[in-house]
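Supplementary Methods, section 5.1.

A reviewer requested that the exact input to the structure prediction be made available. We therefore reproduce it here, unchanged from the version used in the analyses.
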Amino acid sequence: MPRIARVVVPQYPHHITQRGTNRSEIFIDTDDHLYFLTLLGEWIKKLKWRWSSAQEHIHGRTDNTITLHKWLRDEEREEYAKIILEATLQEKIRKATSTGRPFGGTKFLDKLEVMLHRNLQPKQGGRPRKKK
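The structure derived from this sequence is encoded token-by-token as follows.
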């Protein structure tokens, strides 16, 4: 099934995953990774993005290359890590990421559909049946 057009909702967090083809490594070495973060940091400042990383939110590790937007309070970080690390939830997040659909419950998707004036709920796959 093809992906839907990317959904970006103003004022809502946007999950971005970067992977190599067939999940291969995307950085040659640590210096390559740091160079990427430096470039990312420059664009974040130019575009005034509020950006943060999973390393920061789950593990509390700070990346000194980029100033992170702290959208989680310290007391929320542990709860967030529990949710993200839950296996069934991880699979749902992967599915949402791979299909391009927003991740959330039916009420949340209904709200986004009204805001964006477009269908976001998954439809039944396959060719429509012929009417008799």
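The two ends are 26 Å apart (CA to CA). These observations are discussed further in the main text.
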